[in-house]
Amino acid sequence: MGNLIWHEYARFTSITASIYAVWAAFFGLFYRKFFWDFIGGTLRDPGGLQAPPSAAIFVSIIVKVPIVQMITIVLGLFIIALEFPAPPLKALAIHRSIVLRMVLLLFQSFLAILFYQVCPADLNV
Amino acid sequence: MGETWFQREFLAPRRLIFNVVFYGIHFGLFAYGWYSQATSVRLAGLNTLGFSVWTSRGAGLVLAFDGAMILVPMLRNIIRVVRPKLTWLFPADENIWFHRQVAYSMAFWSMVHTTAHYVNFINVERTQIRKQTALQIHYTQPGGITGHFMLLIMFAMYTTAHHKIRKQAFEVFWYTHHLAFFFMIGLYTHATGCFVRDSVEPDLVSYFPFYSTKHCLGYMSWRFTIWPGIIYFGERVYREYRARRATRLSKVLVHPSGAMELRIIKPSFKYTAGQWLFIQVPELSRFQWHPFTITSAPEDPYVSVHIRQVGDFTQGLGERLGVGPSIVAAMTQAAMKGAEKNEKSASRGDFVELDSGAAATPLPAVRIDGPYGAPAEDVFSAEVAVLIGAGIGVTPFASILKHIWYRQKRGTLGTLRRVEFFWICRDAPSFGWFQSLLQEVEAAQADPNFLRINIYLTQKISEDMLWNIAVNDAGAEYDPLTLLRTRTMFGRPDWMTIYGQMRQAVESGQYIPGSKSQLKTKVGTYFCGPGVLAKAIKEATVHNSSSAVEFTFAKEHF
């Protein structure tokens, strides 16, 4: 078998997933929806699924103010900058850190799974 | 390199035409899909969702087109048959390039389509135009399931198809790309759920295709896009059948330069000079097919390929045959030192034949699939053939030169009067097997003017080597580097001068005896090698064409 250099493949993977996450989070700014609102949510006609009161915290940071989406965009852009790499980051030690990448990608998938658009990005991560 | 993106994409006429037609079709389909959705009376309900529906429908139509086109360049056998008739229309050799273009545009439109649908479904949920939640559409209906599934497959296929990954581990790319089978199934079934409809509930029926066309108003594009898929599948089955026909590895020769020559006997295998084949050694890997250029002429009673042990497959093959890299390295070193050099035979040692009977292990079974690629028959329709091989691109000319030699013997050369062969390489020794072939061909020439071999060495040579050459070269019958009668030239060839001189020689009638009676001399150039060089040569051919001499140029992708 050939020698697949895993970290190079991982680089393409995380670039693809991050670009998707940024793009999806951008749309999440305009169409705000808490992904898990079907758990205990009520379906209104018209109006769609309303998240249960227990999820009020998520509603406030995703639907009322799209904080999660914004963080996802920033995080995604940072990962892209780290992976490509952007010239200022290339010189730094964090560019070589695998641990940092793991943490960033975990954060990204956690944030992305919260709102509606980005679930496929999670599959990919 | 040297040229900007704009120059490459828009200032080359053929590329410009391609871009206009290819992207024109895409945007045309998108516009049509958009328009037909936006003006559809029956789908007025869906149209209340606005732009996102129009976008997703337009992009969906484009993707149907791409889904059909992505397989077309992969129909290798059909391309091989239609290629000679259609070279004027499209460069059929560029099939992988075209495949990539379709893939790029597929990725883009998938992004448009998916984004639009995500907006659609959230709006469906909010307005409750259908009594469903976005989640249900995404993960319980055929369209949503196959769509996400296809995105996941695309993600795997695109990331492993990156050229870096392909170079590192071709198998990873090769196996992952076979997910295309499931991708295609997903594509054909993507719209089965009666998704685009004018009724509230899907109008499904119990017989094929399981939806009624009365209320289901999708494009039903699978009716068209499935055909390339069926043909491709049929072709793969045919290739498998063909590969299983009787094949025997009859001989393995190891050349001093380290190349293994595999001589394979397969009576059902018909090919022309300059083509290539896939080879499989089931003992090493049951699924891998590796491409190699055929180096034997069609007249030979066998099919041969020359294999250098450079990758893991070829090294594995060497080990299996008992000539692993270490043995070959020793042989090569000995050959390079000239230890076996014999002035009388003027060659760097002879090849070693691996005897199948005496060896402890019998030769492995092999399977070959092919032939593919460009037949070089049109060499014989020109008066003068200029064959230019650069680097590894020289391999197909082995077969062509041998073929010319056979036809010369039979006296069936057609209009061909002279052959100019150019070989440009960085370091000659690595292509030692080719030298020995050239020696044979050169030695067999009765007419010294028929075939002229020009070898250019572009590598920087050290001072030691320079003096070595200077000392050995003077007065020697054979060139010290290549052991050919032809002298090696150093540096890069100046194509303008070469073609200019050739034109003058032809025009003054010195080049081809008796050519004055002819109105026009056709000089065909056949090139195989990197694109930058191709451009320089093409310019030279265009520049030097005159009323008496017609230079043509063909870049071959063997």
Automatic annotation (TrEMBL), chain A:
Transmembrane regions listed in the UniProt entry: 12-35, 55-86, 98-118
UniProt keyword list: Membrane, Transmembrane, Transmembrane helix
Record-annotated DUF7727 domain positions: 1-119
Record-linked InterPro entries: DUF7727 (IPR056144)
Pfam families listed in its UniProt record: DUF7727
Domain of life: Eukaryota
Stated name of the protein: DUF7727 domain-containing protein
Automatic annotation (TrEMBL), chain B:
Keywords tagged on the record: Electron transport, Ion transport, Membrane, Oxidoreductase, Transmembrane, Transmembrane helix, Transport
One GO MF term: superoxide-generating NAD(P)H oxidase activity
GO BP terms: defense response; monoatomic ion transport; superoxide anion generation
Membrane-traversing stretches: 16-35, 55-75, 139-160, 172-191
GO cellular component, one term: NADPH oxidase complex
Taxonomy, superkingdom: Eukaryota
Localisation per UniProt entry: Membrane
Domain FAD-binding FR-type: 236-378
Major place of residence: membrane
Membrane topology: Multi-pass membrane protein
InterPro entries: Cyt_b245_heavy_chain (IPR000778), FAD-bd_8 (IPR013112), FAD-bd_FR_type (IPR017927), Fe3_Rdtase_TM_dom (IPR013130), Fe_red_NAD-bd_6 (IPR013121), FNR_nucleotide-bd (IPR039261), RBOH/FRE (IPR050369), Riboflavin_synthase-like_b-brl (IPR017938)
PANTHER family in UniProt: FAD-BINDING FR-TYPE DOMAIN-CONTAINING PROTEIN (PTHR11972:SF39), NADPH OXIDASE (PTHR11972)
Name recorded for this polypeptide: FAD-binding FR-type domain-containing protein
Organism per entry: Asterophora parasitica
